[in-house]
Amino acid sequence: MGAGVRARSRLVADVGTTTVSLALLDRAGRVVRRRELPNPQQCTGADVLSRIAAERAARSAGLVDVLRRVADEWGADPRQEVVAVANTVMAHFLLGKSPSGLGYHPYRSRLSRRRVLRAVRAGLRLVMPPLLGRFVGSDCCAAILASGIHRSRRLALLVDAGTNGEVALGDRNGILVCSTAAGPAFEGATLECGSLAGPGAVRSVSISDGRIQVHVGGRRQPESICGSGVLDAVAAGLKFGKIDRSGRVAGGRLQLAPRVWLSQADIREVQLAVGAVGAAVRLLLRSRGADTKDIRQVVVTGRFGAALNIESAVAVGLLPETTASVRQHGNLALRGAVMVAREPELMAEAEALAGKCREVMLSGRQDFESVFVEQMEFRRWR
């Protein structure tokens, strides 16, 4: 608005690898403004490892400046702390620390884990819930807080299949967490005809009268396809035999509309993402000594997670086939950050739950590669 300072208003931010999600709370704690903006570091690479490799360029991309501009435009009270959540690499950039130590073994962070973090950057007083591990950030901590799985009596699974995917498995007695390189396929933007969800983007795909039908946002002709549509399209292609379990596409591409298709390269990118998330779930279950039948609740979050068709996710092997109840949320990380901004005493609860979390380093496991390759196959699993 740019109409002056709103007394006691607070900015809240979820800084993702691809997207920065922002909200403004008024003095009563109500969300009065929302906005999503692209992470300006995208020009230096699509994932966190490429950001580390191009650290100097990523630093100069102006990540903190995005928060500063929005805070000024919305008139956020500069006396109030900005509650921010992020994965560990974005947290380093946001809080002014070099993430270089996370780029090679033994993957050392320059930020403390399991405690609240604070910094002043570009005139903003930033406060961040605890990081949960070397590659599991405060965004996962906030999502767990918002989901309530840390209070659950029964085993729960939380999946955020964003570019830097994070998975949590546990209950009130303890939670295993891990990061998995899902990549940007589920965001849609890196595919040949891909885009973020918006007018003209295929958001879902169904089968009717023996034919594949696309459903488009904005009442326009199909011009692109976003993440939720991609998963539906692959599931439909599998059902029709146009895509086999190995990911091979008949004719080299799956045509969905005159100007929208999935190429063989697109399908391979989706396979890598499905394999990464599926392997993370399986290996956390293995680490816990549990099976899919033990899961009583599944929580799926993120821009992609809120829109995906659960049946399609199970059909391609992204999620296990289970009798557990399933909840979908748009952005639990941002919701958790908003909760902390409204009730600062929840930061102590966030620290307590962080103490119950144990990070599982997937790449350090001898069985990771075999499980990952197995999970890349499009098939149901339990």
Can you give the mean pLDDT?
94
Helix content: 25-40%
SSE topology string = EEEHHHEHEEHEEEEEEHEEHEHHEHHEH
State the helix count: 12
Q: What is the CATH third-level topology name of the domain at 10-134?
A: Nucleotidyltransferase, domain 5
Order of strands across the biggest sheet? 3-2-1-4-6-5
Radius of gyration over C-alpha positions, nearest whole angstrom = 20 Å
What best-fitting shape do the alpha-carbon axes yield?
globular
CATH architecture of the domain at 10-134: 2-Layer Sandwich
Portion in strands: 15-25%
Low-confidence stretches: none
Report how far apart the termini are. 50 Å
The profile of the biggest β sheet is: 6 strands, mixed
Q: How many beta-strand elements?
A: 17
The CATH H-level superfamily of the domain at 10-134 is Domain of unknown function (DUF4445)
Structural class: alpha/beta
CATH class of the domain at 10-134: Alpha Beta
